[in-house]
Design goal:
Layout lengths: L5 H26 L9 E9 L2 E3 L5 E3 L6 E4 L16 E7 L2 E11 L6 E5 H5 L9 E10 L1
Parallel strand pairs: 1-7, 4-6
Antiparallel strand pairs: 1-8, 2-3, 4-7, 5-6, 5-8
Length: 144
């Protein structure tokens, strides 16, 4: 059996993450003919933001005052984000025994496949803002 070089071993985790992300995105594309059938679940990090303006779903948002979620760009499948099936879904996030369910209203360009952004009020229902980036959360995309 051939052994991997040190460079190849260092690149392995990144390669696995890319392959997993691609597999989830393909699975969602196959299931995204309508708002039903989306199956996205994640374990990892959630953080908060407080932007205001138009969200990716085409409606005005105020993440400093409204409860909402911003989902990683890797899960969006429609050419025009406001037509994406995710805009008809909610994000259910569980952290330290607390669970919230909030509507998906935005796309997170800086989030990877294991990260989700919550609006400030939604984040505060799960953790204190001093935490910043909360690790050890589980989340899923669900019907609202």
């Amino acid at each position: 059996m051939r052994s991997l070089s040190k460079t190849a071993l260092k690149a392995l985790p990144v390669t696995l993450i890319i392959m997993l992300t691609a597999a989830v995105a393909v699975a969602q594309k196959k299931n995204s003919s309508g708002s039903k059938g989306i199956s996205i679940k994640g374990n990892g990090v959630f953080s908060y933001y407080n932007d205001a303006g138009y969200g990716a779903c085409g409606t005005q948002i105020n993440a400093a005052a409204q409860e909402l979620a911003s989902v990683s760009h890797v899960y969006w499948t429609a050419a025009s984000p406001e037509n994406d099936p995710l805009c008809k879904k909610c994000a259910r996030v569980t952290y330290n025994g607390k669970t919230i369910t909030v509507p998906v209203k935005d796309k997170c360009p800086g989030c990877n496949a294991t990260t989700i952004d919550l609006s400030l009020p939604a984040f505060q229902k799960l953790a204190h803002t001093d935490v910043g980036r909360a690790k050890g959360a589980s989340w899923s995309i669900v019907d609202c």
